[in-house]
């Protein structure tokens, strides 16, 4: 009997610790993805222009644009789903903030302030946001833990993809301007 109780207690402790994956956090304890990327030959002005163009092209809402300090702050959201690949059903959107700081030869990207906003179907079968939100820092979700862990994992994968796209866009070397060729002069004129 005693061995059974010890085994049950151990398995309960292990199961309770298994909820939620460890996400990278900042000094405030909030989930944050942070990277400093070297860009050896590119000036700060060009990095800033590339970053701003990428943010606008991707549909980010710019909240702060400071070209003198080389700082861009933007917000965006991406959809997360609660079913398989064939029959996807929108469960909500993960809202986040992206900060890009540029300096000569390097830039810093920070993905922070992740908040999950619930969506539900209205009476016309459209998905609309509710007023409920859940910060990504919360590791538990009673009743839908497996789905929440999937959302947390999808967030990590999405941020890695966004960071790779941003790196590709910022480190793209500008195309050299074509030199206008002079028309050939014929000998008779």
Give an overview in words.
The longest helix is centred in the last third of the chain and has 26 residues, at 145-170. The chain has one domain (22-170): Alpha-D-Glucose-1,6-Bisphosphate, Chain A, domain 4 (2-Layer Sandwich), CATH 3.30.530.80. It contains 3 helices and 6 strands. The chain is of the alpha+beta class and 189 residues long. The chain has helices at 2-17, 44-57, 145-170, and strands at 33-38, 61-66, 71-81, 90-103, 106-121, 127-135. Strand 3 and strand 4 (90-103) form a beta hairpin. Mean pLDDT is 83; it is low at 1-19.
Give structural attributes.
6-stranded antiparallel β-sheet, disordered N terminus, 30% helix, elongated, Alpha-D-Glucose-1,6-Bisphosphate, Chain A, domain 4, 3 helices, 189 residues, 6 strands, alpha+beta
């Amino acid at each position: 009997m005693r061995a059974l109780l010890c085994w049950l207690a151990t398995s309960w402790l292990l199961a309770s610790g298994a909820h939620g994956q460890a996400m990278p956090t900042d000094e405030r304890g909030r989930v944050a993805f942070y990277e400093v990327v070297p860009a050896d030959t590119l000036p700060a002005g060009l990095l800033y222009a590339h970053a701003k163009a990428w943010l606008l092209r991707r549909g980010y809402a710019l909240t702060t644009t400071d070209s003198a300090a080389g700082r861009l702050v933007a917000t965006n959201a991406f959809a997360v789903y609660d079913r398989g690949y064939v029959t996807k059903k929108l469960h909500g959107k993960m809202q986040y903030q992206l900060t890009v700081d540029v300096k000569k030869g390097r830039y810093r990207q920070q993905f922070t302030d992740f908040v999950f906003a619930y969506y539900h179907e209205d009476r016309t079968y459209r998905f609309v946001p509710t007023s409920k939100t859940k910060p990504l820092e919360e590791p538990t979700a009673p009743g839908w833990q497996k789905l929440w862990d999937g959302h947390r994992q999808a967030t990590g994968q999405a941020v890695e993809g966004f960071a790779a796209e941003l790196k590709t866009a910022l480190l793209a070397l500008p195309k050299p301007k074509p030199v206008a060729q002079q028309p050939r002069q014929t000998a008779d004129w």
